[in-house]
Amino acid sequence: MTTLLPTRERMYAALTARDPAFEGIFFTAVKTTHIFCRPTCRAKTPRLENVDFFPCATDALAAGYRPCLRCRPTELAPRPPALVERLREAVEHAPGGRLTDKELLALEIEPTTARRQFRRYYGVTFHAWQRARRLGLALGDVRAGRPLAEAGAERGYGSASAFRDAFSKTFGQPPGQARKAVQGDTASGGCLFESRYETPLGSMIALADERGLRLLEFADRRGLPREVENLRRRLRAAVVPGTNAHLQAIGRELAEYFAGRRQKFTVPLAPVGSDFQLRVWDQLCAIPHGETRAYAHIAAAIGQPRAVRAIGRTNGSNMLCLVIPCHRVIRADGALCGYGGGVWRKRWLIDHERGMIGQGSLALDQPRTA
Question: Is 71 a catalytic residue?
Answer without folding.
Answer: no
